[in-house]
Amino acid sequence: MPGEFLTIQILAVGVTVVAKVFGGYSLWWLIPNFILLFLAWNAYRMLIYERYLNPVSKLPGPSGHWLWGQFPAINHAEPGAPHVKWLREYRSPVGLVAYPGLFYSLRVMPTSTSTVQHVLNNTSIYVKPAQAVRSLKMILGDGLLTAEGEMHKRQRKVLNPAFATSYIRDNVPVFSEKALGLANTLLDEIKSQPAEGIEVFKFLSRATLDIIGSAGFGYEFNSLYNPDDPFASAYASLFQRQGSRLLQVVSNYIPLMRHLPVPRVLAVKRARKTIKDNATKLVRDKEAQPTLVGKDILSLMIAENRKAEGKLAEMELVDQVMTFLAAGHETTSTAVCLLIISVY
Fold first, then answer.
1. Domain definitions of the chain by residue range
2. Contact 218, 342 (CB under 8 A)
3. pLDDT higher than 50, residue 1
């Protein structure tokens, strides 16, 4: 099925044709007709194409509501629970399951290790969905996790040296130091609140942010002891579970909703600006150093970038910093929190 940009182009051509044919009609006549054309196009896509003409519709998997698809089931269940159910229920030799998401957009889920390996080894064919990329770029920028094709290859070439085994080994003392600081902080919290539970996740998030700050950029956030640190405050605002889940998901399909002057949208914009401004400062401070002697990711990345052909521009480096800040601390803190829950 043509992508959303092609859809917009087709609608624009349709309205242009109407305008040419009926040149005497006003803009107020064209706007409702554009809306009707848009609704008709999407009705065709949801009710006919996705159900009967899309090759993906031939794959095994659940059906769903004509408009919401399986979004209600995914939204109200534990994360991943519906997908595990479908994996078991619709397991097939092809190693794929298809299910309808919001607005009945069919999604494909690999269900075997061989299929996953095939997808990961052919990233030029299997690109990320536009909706997912838009959502990720709000937090990560145009970094390694959102780039595709040649841009991804170029970024990966510059970043590869930072993930050598020797580099990781050299940073083990940093991990140990921050982990010890986390343990001491939690003990202090327990002593001050003996009869109450404590919110472990916020301390895990601060500790992992300190780790990526030190090991990743040679910068001490000290957010474990200073929760008002700009990075810590911005990420706390960015990842907090507030506002309408439906609004967040629908905005992936209708980008205009990200510009509505509602509290959650404004809070995300402020947090992202804070993160980007501070990430830019980190990059510029490092680039100003004539000789880079640190073993952090940013130093290695800039050093490699200086001698690479087709080197990354400053904003590409900033986007890498944003990527590693978010992916390097929030995912780890969440995983450790789930581990604690599982053994509690």
1. 1-53, 54-125, 149-343
2. no
3. no
On the question of pLDDT at 23 being above 90, the answer is no
pLDDT, one tens digit per residue, over 272-303 is 899 899 889 989 988 888 887 777 888 888 88
pTM above 0.70, yes or no: yes
Q: Which amino acid is at 258?
A: R
Q: Under a CB-based contact definition with an 8 Å cutoff, are residues 302 and 317 in contact?
A: yes
- Determine how many CB atoms are found less than 10 A away from the CB of residue 141: 23
| 180 vs 32, more confident | 180
Could you give the count of Cα atoms lying within 13 Å of 232 in the half-sphere of its Cβ? 22
Give the ranges where 3-103 is alpha helix by DSSP (H): 4-21, 27-44, 71-76, 81-89
Distance CA 317, CA 302 (A): 8
C-beta separation of 159 from 139 below 8 A = no
Closest by CA to 73, choosing from 47, 108, 99, is 99
Sequential DSSP letters for 232-297? HHHHHHHH---S-HHHHHHHHH-GGGGGS--HHHHHHHHHHHHHHHHHHHHHHHHHT-SS----SH
Domain 149-343 sits in which CATH superfamily? Cytochrome P450 (1.10.630.10)
* Measured distance between the N- and C-terminal CA atoms of the chain, rounded to whole angstroms: 47
